[in-house]
UniProtKB/TrEMBL annotation:
A divalent metal cation binds at H34, D36, H67, D176. InterPro entries: Aldolase_TIM (IPR013785), Ribul_P_3_epim (IPR026019), Ribul_P_3_epim-like (IPR000056), RibuloseP-bd_barrel (IPR011060). Keywords: Carbohydrate metabolism, Cobalt, Isomerase, Manganese, Metal-binding, Zinc. This is Ribulose-phosphate 3-epimerase. Coiled coil: none annotated. SUPFAM superfamilies: Ribulose-phoshate binding barrel. GO terms for cellular component: cytosol. GO terms for biological process: carbohydrate metabolic process; pentose-phosphate shunt, non-oxidative branch. The active site is at D36, D176. Its EC number is 5.1.3.1. One of its GO terms (molecular function) is metal ion binding. Its cofactor is Fe(2+); a divalent metal cation; Zn(2+); Co(2+). PROSITE patterns: RIBUL_P_3_EPIMER_1, RIBUL_P_3_EPIMER_2.
Length: 225
């Protein structure tokens, strides 16, 4: 069974105090730190790149779960590997012709490969990547349109999670977008085990309690199945 992993989305943190925010999240129970990398092209927003990952890496040993919302993910593999990224998740929509090569290069740089899908992309599109000889090790289901934090959770995306969990019982299935105490049960019962949450954690009076509630929901759902 894929273990529960709670990954605060650092896009919602105070970027001026990123190292302190990372340390605070880990102290309060985070498993991973989710890093939203946007190029201003694949999505309209522009966020952080390898230099920020490299700076943060000097201050933390945490698993840096990097989600690349970029048009040319292969251009970033070497820089992110050098910077100290732990996971490198690319989008299937921009990698249909070169995903095999991309997975190989991500692994060669010591990172864990993942693939993500926008809400409009059929889940079947990632089956070959999970079943490949050299497979991705995580599938990220976007539960909002990628690009901005604070959006509303799309429950209809849970069908994708259910399909993946049924087909791949031990796969890391990550959900990102609008996750919090009011939406976690839908995601957890569908089979998601890696939970990305930004506003609901960073905007809470007690972020540790929110992370604990998210984890508990995943674990309760897993014990039922």
């Amino acid at each position: 069974m894929a273990a529960a992993k709670i990954a605060p989305s650092m896009l919602s943190s105070d970027f001026a105090n990123l190292a302190a925010e990372a340390e605070r999240m880990l102290r309060l129970g985070a498993d991973w730190l989710h890093m939203d990398v946007m190029d201003g092209h694949f999505v309209p927003n522009l966020t952080i790149g390898a230099p920020v990952i490299q700076s943060l890496r000097k201050h933390t040993k945490a698993y840096l779960d990097c989600h690349l919302m970029v048009t040319n993910p292969s251009d970033y593999v070497e820089a992110f590997g050098k910077a100290g990224a732990s996971g490198f998740t690319f989008h299937i929509e921009v990698s249909r012709d070169n995903w095999e090569e991309l997975i190989k290069s991500i692994k060669a740089k010591g990172m864990r490969p993942g693939v993500s899908l926008r809400p409009g992309t059929p889940v079947e599109d990632v089956f070959p990547l999970v079943e490949a000889e050299n497979p991705v090790e995580l599938v990220l289901i976007m539960t909002v349109e990628p690009g901005f934090g604070g959006q509303k959770f799309m429950p209809e995306m849970m069908d994708k999670v259910r399909t993946l969990r049924k087909k791949y019982p031990s796969l890391d299935i990550e959900v990102d977008g609008g996750l919090g105490p009011s939406t976690i049960d839908a995601a957890a019962s569908a089979g998601a085990n890696c939970i990305v949450a930004g506003s609901s954690i960073f905007g809470a009076a007690e972020p540790g309690e929110v992370m604990s509630a998210l984890r508990k929901s995943v674990e309760v759902s897993q014990n039922k199945s």
